[in-house]
Write a structure and sequence with these properties.
By secondary structure, the protein is mainly beta. It is built from 1 helix and 9 strands; from the N terminus they run E-E-E-E-E-H-E-E-E-E. Strands 4-5-7-8-9 form a 5-stranded mixed beta barrel. A 4-stranded mixed β-sheet has the order 2-3-1-6. It is elongated, with a radius of gyration of 18 Å.
Length: 125
């Protein structure tokens, strides 16, 4: 079944919307990118207007911001500690926005969307 960015077929009450048209090609969605820990691996995809999107599949390092010293540094990712989007992502070491990770510098919270950007940024907790 194809993923789309259209409204659901059912209303909140449970009644059906009457379809006034079919699915369009530009409404097709892609499978989510499940970014994991490992040696950096990313792919680029062509999007509309000849733009390029990057999907980060694996990464082993993170750009860490320390709010006390107000400095940025690079740190290696050890493991995933907590993921608010899905509790099963912790076992699979999948990173999303808001994930708490263990790094060389300490615990950090991911502040960007690694599946859609080609890097991982985090803030020390």
């Amino acid at each position: 079944m194809a993923l789309t960015h259209t409204r659901p077929r059912r209303k909140a009450t449970g009644s059906r919307y009457i379809a006034y048209r079919h699915k369009r090609k530009y409404e097709i969605a892609r499978q989510p990118t499940l970014t994991t820990i490992g040696q950096k691996k990313s792919i680029s995809l062509r999007s509309r207007s000849n733009h390029e999107k990057f999907k980060l599949l694996k990464i082993g390092a993170v750009n860490v911001y320390d709010p006390k010293t107000k400095a940025h540094s690079k740190a290696a990712i050890k493991t995933i500690l907590e993921n608010p989007s899905n509790r099963h992502y912790v076992r699979r070491n999948i990173m999303t926005k808001g994930t708490i990770i263990e790094t060389d510098k300490g615990k950090a919270k991911i502040t960007n969307r690694p599946g859609q950007e080609n890097t991982v940024n985090a803030v020390l907790i």
